[in-house]
Amino acid sequence: MEDIYFIMQIQKECPPGLCLEEGQYILDGDFENPVRKGFVVEKEISEDNAMQIILPIASIINEKYFVNEDGIIEERDPYCKHCNSHHFIRKGYNWKTICLEVGIFIRVKIKRYLCKRCRLNYQTEFPDLYEKYCTFSIKFKELVRKNIKYGYMSLRHIKRSIKLSMDVDISHESIRKFFKTTDSLYYRDDSFKPSGYYGFDSQWVKINKKWLYRLALFDLINNRPLAEAIEEKENYDTIKNFIIKSVSPKDRRAIVTDKGKDYEKIMDELNFDHQLCTFHLEKHLWELVNKEANKIAKKYRAQLKKENPNFSKTKLNKMRDEKKKEFKEEMGELIELFMAFKDQQTWKKAQNYIELLKRELINFPDFLQEYIMKNFMPYYKKYIKFLTKEYKGKLDSTDNKLENYFGNTLSKHIKKIFRTKQGVFNFIFQRKNGWNENNKSALRT
Questions:
Q1: Which CATH number fits the domain that encloses residue 426?
Q2: Given pLDDT bands bounded at 50, 70 and 90, which one contains residue 16?
Q3: Is the dihedral of CA 228, 229, 234, 236 positive or negative?
Q4: Helix (H) or strand (E) holding 108
């Protein structure tokens, strides 16, 4: 008995209120020797191998519950869970199998009641520790969820981890249910007040060979995601409805996006000051450069081979790569010169720099000139919005915070492995919680 008491006593939190009114403690159950008969359960839960025991543990005494003289856990102030009435009749007990945080299963007696008002039955419940009809405690579930909060683990891997660390056999379905947070494919974090400054973007997610869209709003000042959804389409109506649902008009000040289809029209209609992402602008310029470099390198190699038929394949490829590298270095200097507009200290200086660029574009190759004149110059004021006095220090020039959040919560190597929309959304939800915990020092509430 002393060994049992010691082992149970060291647990931080177990079933509530396991103390008698008279200050005496009892051991109750069908086993003559509960230690030998299954103190550490090696099989799946059943009435035969779960320990039937009630013990005193100082850390779990709770003023809401007590154990009566028959070893049954009762509420000190019982009330009907259906109509909240306090008029009842005591009606025996039920056995309940519960799992402690460290994986030890025990069976306890819990009191049944009959409500005099609605005539429905109810029983003692422990909502602070155990969800309704659940064997595993809330803390045990949270320990399991932590396996996925800070990095991806398959259900099989988690099952093995639980078995090795706690010697508990638990089904894949039970683990999956632990991670299930919501039946919806949308959430909004109401735990903080929105700042009014956001980043918006979408991420492609593949489910059963079909691409879906993860829409997200990220609060730039609070440095945390505000809302997310999984949608089958990324169009004008879907994006607009998502933002309307997530941000009230009074909380709309400014937003950063890339130059996606319909983004500008939507943000203008919703009365956001719209900052276009300078990172995506530079990224698109480099995509054009790489495409052009491949064309030039291919043409150069063909010409070399024609003029020097004795050159080996290795030599031709080496000379082609050198030509490609030289071209990209030259274009890199031009892109750096062009992108310097975002490094100016004030909006006025940035505007003057862009006016200077207009005159210098004649020195840029045609493919860059064409892209800049068509995709940048008509919208340049939206690329330097972050430099205005109103938004300096509040609005970012890029949506890199959101891109970083995407990469840490649903990286490329795992976003194609899910089979259901609900599965990927609950994974995102758990990873979001882990990401917020890891970034507590940077959060503003």
A1: 3.30.420.10
A2: very low
A3: negative
A4: strand 105-115
198/40: higher pLDDT: 198
**Look-up of token digits 């190759």:** 365
Average pLDDT over residues 2-16: 36
The H or E element that residue 355 is part of is helix 347-360
Domain count for the chain: 4
- Residue 302 structural domain: 278-387
Asked whether the whole model's pTM tops 0.70, one would answer no
- Return the pLDDT at 294: 95
Within a domain: 327: yes
d(CA 340, CA 324): 24
Find where tokens 């998502």 sit: 242
Q: Which uninterrupted H or E stretch holds 251? A: none
Q: What are the helix (H) ranges across 106-186?
A: 138-149, 155-166, 172-179
Establish if 393 belongs to a structural domain.
Answer: no
For 329, the token pair is 């270095």
**Cα 193 to Cα 191: distance, rounded to the nearest angstrom:** 7
d(Cα 356, Cα 364) in Å, to the nearest integer? 13
- For residue 224, is it within any domain? yes
Euclidean distance between CA atoms 10 and 139, whole angstroms: 16
CA distance 36 to 266: 68
Contact in structure between 75 and 123 (CB atoms under 8 Å): no
| Cα 25 to Cα 12: distance, rounded to the nearest angstrom | 19
Residue 127's contacts (CB-CB under 8 Å, 6 or more residues apart) are none
Return the amino acid letter for 98: I
